[in-house]
Amino acid sequence: MGIIMGSMKKKIITTDDFASLMQREFLAVHEKMDKGFARVDKRFDQVDKQFDEMKAEIKELCRDIEDLKLRTGEMVFRFEIKELEKRLRKLELKLG
After folding, report:
1. Residue 38: domain span
2. Coil, strand or helix at 46
3. pLDDT higher than threshold 70 for residue 4
């Protein structure tokens, strides 16, 4: 029994020939998909690496922020100094 392929030259092929053709095409598609998946996997690996680097940078920034909070908590700010200077001048004038 044979099959006539319409878009090709009118050639009668056997069922085995058709099965072989289909198998080759499926294998070709499978190979292309494997290559595509490999590229996607590689890209995900790159993205994972970038996320890991970003996580490390964020952790470092958080440590720096905590360090700054500790340092500024002990600081006397300029506006506080100015206010104390005003109060001191008033006291000096009263005692004066």
Report:
1. 2-95
2. helix
3. no
